Amino acid sequence: MEEMIFASRQGRNIPKEDKIFGINNRAKAMIAKEGKEKVVNATIGALLDDEGELIVLSSVNDVFKNLSPKEFAEYAPISGTPEFREAVKQDALRSYEPKGHVVASATPGGTGAIRNTIANYTDRGDSILVADWYWAPYNTIAAEQGRKVETFAFFNGERKFNDADFRKKAEKLLLNQERLVVILNTPAHNPTGYSLTAEDWNNVKNIMETLPRQKKITLLVDVAYIDFAGDEDEYRTFLPILEKMPENVLPMLSHSLSKAYTLYGMRCGALICLAKTKEVAEEFKRVCEFSSRASWSNCARAPQTILSKIYGDPKLKAKVFEERQGYREMLLRRGKAFEEAADECGLEMVPFDAGFFASIPCQNPDQVAARLEKEGIFLVPLAKGLRVSIASVSEEVCRMLPAKILAAMETE
Question: Alpha-carbon distance 332 to 352, whole Å?
Fold first, then answer.
């Protein structure tokens, strides 16, 4: 481990560079040297067209270009503009009308929502609970806050959600801590593409009902990819189940404008609380404003204005949703192509439903990824396998990749 010179390590493992961005940089370097046609960069968590160019919704871009200086340059309130807070609740919940108290607080993307949840709903030294296939920055965010990550086995031997291990790990953690944050990334889970089913969600609710009622549990659903999973209403049918959780469970949503509105670089999202009481809702608003002020202060106003304008104009909203549907169908075709090709060549996949990513279980993922890099194929090695960004490559490449991955795995 490299020694720090002036900076304090504070128990954190601080790498020289972010793993995913490092791989992406190597892919870009090879493209510059060998040419675009010699490289497959399946690392990027953004939707690209078949030529590898970033897709930006033209309907959203039109709104952005027509903002007045005041609409993007003025400071936004710490928790977001009132119009944005209402619009982002509608965007996250759509036709569902919760019975409790819903409060939204602006964050710089979904990352900020996760950060504020961990900072305010766990104690220092606590562990948060996530699936063993998970987005690596969960660990980084937790470590920065002086917390740890505990994992449960995402899938059982039948390739279904492992509710037994979920229960076991939650019970274990609550033996030694008064609070617990659980993060479930669904639908279109990063990195596997799995979506919890109605049966899965009912099992989660049933487990929550068996956990000690004197403990405080925050259930954060990371829905960053929800609008690229499939029918936007169908994939929100789990929301009523959240409100049926016991009194000691506080459901929250980590919502992002990055994917659904192709506003990756504007860093805008929201943490949305589904509180049963007014007191809990008011506390949520207060602690989020405090944490936000102490970190990023307030978020960019431009994306907040963009979403507010979209939800303030039914015709514009319909145009945005229609354009997004076309790209969603393109992404779903890519995922289907990858699945079919994997099945044809005998490559095992982690259970997949939809989304930006698919994952391949394998031994020695770092070595396999290194072999593929020599062929100009860049994937992200994880603890238990390889992550493939089907969002960043064409349908043709999705059909080609499984056989290449299998060949690299079989080379020892």
Answer: 11
131 forms beta bridges with: 152
What the block records as the tokens of 142 is 């937790």
- d(Cα 247, Cα 219) in Å, to the nearest integer? 12
CA separation, residue 119 to residues 74, 103, 167, 181, 202 (Å): 28, 18, 24, 10, 28
Q: Does the pTM of the predicted model rise above 0.85?
A: yes
Give the model's confidence band at 24: pLDDT under 50 very low, under 70 low, under 90 confident, else very high.
confident
Rounded Cα gap, residues 263 and 269, in angstroms: 10
Q: Which of 183, 277, 186 is nearest to 224 (CA)?
A: 186
Q: How distant, in Å, are the alpha carbons of 93, 362, 400 from that of 406?
A: 40, 10, 11
Rounded to whole angstroms, how far apart are CA atoms 298 and 292? 7
Q: Which residue has the tokens 């064409």?
A: 394
Cα distances (angstroms) measured from residue 104 to each of 122, 242, 253, 285: 19, 16, 9, 8
254: helix, coil or strand? Answer: strand
pLDDT in tens, 262-309: 999 999 999 999 999 999 999 999 999 999 999 999 999 999 999 999
DSSP one-letter string for 193-224: -----HHHHHHHHHHHHHS-TTSEEEEEEE-T
